[in-house]
Amino acid sequence: MGGYIGKILRVNLTEGKISTEPLNMELAKKYLSGRGLAGKMFTDEVASDVDALSPENKIFIAAGALTGTNAPTSGRYVVVTKSPLNGVVASSNSGGQWGAHMKFAGYDMVILEGKADRPVYLSIHDDVVEIKDAAHVWGKDVYATTDTLKKEFGDDKVKVLSIGPAGENLSLISAVMNDLYRAAGRSGVGAVMGSKNVKAILVRGTGKVENANPDVMKTVLSSALGKLRENGVTGQGLPTYGTAVLVNIINESGIYPVKNFQESYDAEADLISGETMTANHLIKKDPCYRCPIACGRYSKWEGGEGAGPEYETVWVFGSNSGIHDFDAIHKANDLCNKLGLDTISVGATIAAGMELVQRGYIKPEELDGTPLEFGNAAGMVEWVRKIGYAEGLGAKMALGSYRLAESYGAPELSMTVKKLEIPAYDPRGVQGQGLQFATSNRGGCHVRGYMISPEILGLPEKLDRTSLEGKATWVKIFQDLTAVIDSLGLCLFSSFALGLSDYAALVNAVTGANYTDEELLACGERIWNNERLHNLRVGYSAAEDTLPKRLIQDPIVDGPSKGQVLKLAELLPKYYAERGWDEAGVPTPECLTKLGM
Amino acid sequence: MGGYIGKILRVNLTEGKISTEPLNMELAKKYLSGRGLAGKMFTDEVASDVDALSPENKIFIAAGALTGTNAPTSGRYVVVTKSPLNGVVASSNSGGQWGAHMKFAGYDMVILEGKADRPVYLSIHDDVVEIKDAAHVWGKDVYATTDTLKKEFGDDKVKVLSIGPAGENLSLISAVMNDLYRAAGRSGVGAVMGSKNVKAILVRGTGKVENANPDVMKTVLSSALGKLRENGVTGQGLPTYGTAVLVNIINESGIYPVKNFQESYDAEADLISGETMTANHLIKKDPCYRCPIACGRYSKWEGGEGAGPEYETVWVFGSNSGIHDFDAIHKANDLCNKLGLDTISVGATIAAGMELVQRGYIKPEELDGTPLEFGNAAGMVEWVRKIGYAEGLGAKMALGSYRLAESYGAPELSMTVKKLEIPAYDPRGVQGQGLQFATSNRGGCHVRGYMISPEILGLPEKLDRTSLEGKATWVKIFQDLTAVIDSLGLCLFSSFALGLSDYAALVNAVTGANYTDEELLACGERIWNNERLHNLRVGYSAAEDTLPKRLIQDPIVDGPSKGQVLKLAELLPKYYAERGWDEAGVPTPECLTKLGM
């Protein structure tokens, strides 16, 4: 058997009990690994009505079958748990090196259950696994924690995953961080770790991941590397300019949200573009495990250096907050990494706060003297810090923009779907992406089906972004394919260049499986439906497959997409039908039977 | 002024005196910076007859005018000193991050003169410069030294340059290492640092390098990045497979030396190719400062992980030693980095040792039980260690292959030019490269004029490698252009995609200079002639512009280039004429006058 290790590490924190168990390979056939398999185990093991921050919730930290192999972009792992932000199956994945090293240590998955009676961290050195006291790092930021625990471990090859103060403070927009700068960012997964009193997980693996067909793999790998190299996005745009290469592209399409989505075009966007970052801030590329793309940036800014911001981060702390100070954007990004926060949700919550101030909901006296207004860069950076440490109004903002806006009686000012903040694409100007935001199982998320790829970038083919034709089909396929990619432990960015057949070739070569393209995509569909069933159980219905009023009712006010609206009412029934769901968005028995669920 | 800082740090170790002085901008106009300017200052300040390992020798550690700017591949610095291996102007350059940070700290150059009365290291934190005691790290390897001194400095953003035990032991093939894995490798520069009792130099710079024309630079940068991306070597081969992409290419041309150049083709080369490394060892890319190419590899091997070997290293510990054990090659490479050794010279010395054993010169009883024979991988790795620590026969091998072979009365078995080991290209099958090896100012070196680029890779145009036509002209231009690239602080690999006009555009945009293409290339020619004049002063003559007998007299015995010989006697007079030198290879007064020397 290749790819899979075949072993799970289960840690009962309440009892301090560590055990291992074999991976259920029957389940793995149907749900692959990573997001899919961990999601299925989560829905099987955790009752849908448990409180996300209670000991009854569990955390499944899972690598993919391809994680840690020689497949390109195979550095990803996922954190699956019940989201404290919105109750969905949180499955936030992250790159860097940690996930591959969990496999090298001999595990496909680590499951955390119960709750420790004091702050602890988990130390995994191959088959030596220990629960250790973390009192001395509790309260410390991610950088200091990483440094301290690495020294304590005594081998600087150890990889560290940890939460920051935000996770300890149970911020609902807190992240799980690894390798200093990489985030399993969304859905508040950091708070779940915090609620269990787990500060960090160290892995040092000296083993390797087997490959079932090394000779076949050499050919498959060479083909995949060639496609990634020759593709304009993975071979040119991302390597040269990082993900912020999108700033100018998205802005020029007029779907670049400004000031909490009040506008959709920024005449000054180039001040904070990927091109400008490359000219003024880049120190070096900082690639994830086995990534030929290397979009990760290591940058320099006024007074500091470290990870450079991603596109979404640049946007959210930049134009969406009315800010063009690139140093301040770098600082805000660095603070999020340091404190263990999701940049998108933090920035969007600050922008919502700015609009709440603008419209008089938040009163000046609530701000403790820290400006919260569009365009104020220093204030923005300070609010990031306050959110991380839950200081003053920051404590409320640490619960995300929906709860913030709702507490002022203005939930419509929160640009969220299912309470999760929507990323940097105005859905009114890009119909498929709009439908995807509305139906994404985890809420306002771009990486569950990145329709920007066909609708803006023209990959794998160019679609008319204003047309509804075929979009329901595209969204379904993209969502299912993404579930496959996530579940294999690969990076979604590989899909700009690779297609279903490439992924089938990779998983078959590495694991020795024999998936046809259709069977593999059916795994993705199964994973999607499993997540959907969970959402229905926790109380979501078709009514929540929607977007904020602003993005449904009001036409875009400016720029190249001026006047456009999202025609969600027309798209949604087509999507349900495409999925084999009934009119209420519930999977039909036929659909589930077909998928063997 | 952009690019240049305008300040030199001079450290007199004998007196413990630290001073700064302005950079001589008049000299910089003619000799640029880095290799060129430091080389000129070296020949001005250090008498040609000083012993390289005496306190009278000086070390000039110099960044280029573009080092630390936003120019692509601008991470390089150079170590200029008199070579203890062969008396030439050693000017070994290295990438990584250290050089850029020396600029950030506020210096174009650090000059070390005299000799400390005890082991010391230099700590540079912007304008706070201290000579510190290094007794506790003397004897330690590069990794331990880096770790210890970083902790001592108390800021993990500090960059460390150091020597290993090999430099302390005055090995004539020892390197200066920086950022753990990057080497100013050749000509024994590590021993000169060792002779001065300087273990390490730490830099922490918080400043930045100014840019004279940021707007112009944005356009120039975008153009250069585009060319680097679209070029087959810098945009495809090197990023995907690292420099070891050359293994199959060079082998298939039949100029891939095997067993100390006894053969020139290896039927099993693919076992240790870049493609195989990528399939079996790569963990991630590890790019230098501002490098869009990112050929650096971070790899995994049996029992370890760290920097992956370069092409020359793979070859020298691989086919040139009759070895195809890729784990062993990785281990030998790692040991060289750890002990501070030049991989090419170490591997070539071991291979020469293997031939000396094969032919009965070295007796079994001299080996202390460690096998020294073609194909013995474990023995090879152990000999690397013995060379680093100067143990047994390793002490003699630490002086390089020429002194080793010469001590057994068989200097013809040392594959060197001017005592420096020749890299991985059989000159008999590639005439221009052969001429370049013979005339390179520092001896058997491929990176003073990489004729493989036109003669094998077809860049910037494809030349017939067996033809003599035009080769003297090409070699001259390549040598001069390389001197320009080195002296600006850029990586030679950029020249697969960029040409003279691109470099002129970059230096003019950054520094505000107005070099025409011709003026810039004349700087390169001036630098070349300055180095040549030094060689003549220390006693070299046309008689040493040659290659080992094996590579001149004997035709290639096997493979695609079978039967070929290097026609050096025909090439050399043309080259001298092309350079404006007399028949004895001495620059004529007209030549020097034309160059303003």
Give an account of the 3D structure.
2 copies of one chain form a homodimer. With 597 residues, chain A is α+β, with helices and mostly antiparallel strands. The first copy, chain A, folds into 3 domains: 7-204, Aldehyde Ferredoxin Oxidoreductase,  A, domain 1 (4-Layer Sandwich); 239-420, Aldehyde Ferredoxin Oxidoreductase Protein, subunit A, domain 2 (Orthogonal Bundle); 430-496 and 516-595, Aldehyde Ferredoxin Oxidoreductase Protein, subunit A, domain 3, CATH 1.10.599.10. Helices cover 40% and strands 14% of the residues of chain A. Chain A is built from 24 helices and 17 strands. In chain A, strands 2-1-6-3-4-5 form a 6-stranded mixed beta sheet, with helices on both faces. In chain A, strands 8-7-12-9-10-11 form a 6-stranded mixed beta sheet. In chain A, strands 13-14-15 form a 3-stranded antiparallel beta sheet. In chain A, helix 2 packs parallel to helix 21 (517-537), helix 12 (326-339) runs parallel beside helix 14 and helix 19 crosses helix 21. The first copy, chain A, is globular, with a radius of gyration of 22 Å. Chain A binds chain B through residues 70, 75, 97, 100, 147, 156-157, 206, 208, 214, 217-218, 221-222, 225, 229, 235-236, 239-240, 275-276, 278-280, 282-285, 287-292, 294, 300, 303, 305, and chain B through 70, 75, 97, 100, 147, 156-157, 206, 208, 214, 217-218, 221-222, 225, 229, 235-236, 239-240, 275-276, 278-280, 282-285, 287-292, 294, 300, 303, 305.
